[in-house]
Write a structure and sequence with these properties.
single chain; about 375 residues; alpha/beta; Rossmann fold; six-stranded parallel beta sheet; 18 helices; globular; transferase; transmembrane helix
Length: about 375
């Protein structure tokens, strides 16, 4: 099978979607498919080769498609600039598709691309990561797509409620590269020295973007919990944009919590993994918003499990699809007191930490990129 994976994304990118796309192209290739990744030829301040940036094997091809790159004009024209870029990319993609000597399966997580292709006689699969605001506008997409890959059961349920045939929907959660995580095998104490982290404190970590789709991801809840914790507990945030660091430091300062709070900017993937493994516990503090409650299958969830550290997570349905009371400790979303309770519970019980992290590491073996790719390929028509 030949798969053309189309993504209107700047790759490499600091965003998690670029990493997920590259890992899936690699996994599809390892599973026996011949893969081409088509991306727009856009301005990119990251000059590194995508394969080395994401630590992905060069076992598939990347094809850069010409595009009218209006994205740099977004600050002047807003969403119109993004729409113009999407339209131009779709047109150029269609031109390349029509030049093919034979039809291939088209795979994409870009809603607009799939909607555009639905007007042509093309076999495509749509991987959905969030529920569209204007579902009816994309009615044609749901009718024409050969199948839908949903990253959560919650997304599948919503699609069924809106009339999509359940038989054409596959739930496939995101995944992790276990071999890469296992290759980072230094003792926690040595990693802390390398990263210049406090050696004797109980470190609670968050690693990842601070906001998604303009929505806060619960960082403020974590900072608000610091005054309720003992001085020997510190919270380490890794992944802030430069423009965000001041905002969150100011909040911590207002709460007299800055001395227990480390805010670190976005890091290369290897270093991000080391930060996870340097922690005593890791937190997914998502608020109770529909996107996080029902649609999100965050990469950090599987990465935390693979890191072998106990997880504290907001008690949300999407996270409960993977986590349970045997492999994670839950707290009420946006409840500062309940989060502090969970942190202190782990601080007081090494046995609890051991059992939660051990079960999570065992469970995550079912969620590798390779397993996900095989599941999808087996489902495809």
């Amino acid at each position: 099978m030949k798969i053309i994976y189309i993504s209107n994304s700047r790759i490499p990118t600091e965003k998690a979607n670029g990493f997920q796309i590259m890992k899936m192209c690699e996994a599809f290739s390892n599973a026996g498919a011949k893969v081409e990744l088509w991306i727009p030829k856009r301005f990119n301040r990251i000059k590194e080769d995508p394969f080395s940036y994401y630590n992905v094997g060069k076992i598939f091809d990347i094809k850069k498609i010409s595009v009218i790159d209006t994205i740099p004009l977004e600050k002047f024209f807003g969403s119109i600039a993004g729409l113009a870029e999407s339209i131009s990319f779709s047109i150029f993609v269609l031109f390349h598709i029509l030049k093919r000597e034979q039809k291939n399966l088209i795979y994409s997580r870009d809603q607009f691309i799939c909607w555009f292709l639905s007007f042509f006689n093309e076999k495509f699969v749509y991987e959905i990561h969030s529920f569209p605001k204007n579902f009816r506008l994309y009615k044609r997409l749901w009718r024409k797509t050969h199948c839908v890959v949903a990253i959560t059961q919650g997304l599948k349920s919503l699609l069924i409620e809106h009339g999509i045939d359940s038989g054409k929907i596959l739930v496939a959660s995101d995944g992790v590269d276990l071999e890469f995580f296992n290759s980072v095998n230094q003792p926690k104490e040595d990693i802390r020295i390398e990263l210049n982290l406090p050696a004797g404190d109980f470190l609670v970590g968050y690693v990842g973007k601070f906001k998604t789709l303009g929505m806060e991801k619960g960082i403020k809840t974590m900072i608000s919990a610091i005054p309720l914790l003992g001085k020997e507990i510190k919270i380490v945030f890794v992944g802030a944009e430069e423009s965000e660091i001041k905002e969150y430091k100011n909040m911590a300062n207002r709460l007299n919590a800055l001395s227990q709070c480390l805010i670190i900017n976005n890091q290369p993937y290897l270093k991000a993994v080391k930060y996870m493994k340097a922690m005593d516990a890791l937190v997914i503090p998502f608020p109770n918003a529909p996107h996080y409650a029902f649609y999100a299958s965050p990469l950090k969830l599987f990465e935390y499990m693979a890191a072998g550290r106990p997880i504290i997570a907001s008690d949300l349905p999407a996270l409960r699809e993977i986590l349970n009371d045997k492999n994670a400790l839950f707290f009420k979303p946006e409840d500062v007191d309940d989060l502090a309770r969970a942190v202190k519970m782990l601080k007081l019980s090494q046995t609890l930490c051991y059992h939660l992290s051990g079960q999570a590491f065992s469970d995550v073996k079912n969620y590798t990129w390779g397993a996900r790719a095989k599941k999808i390929l087996n489902f495809l028509p």
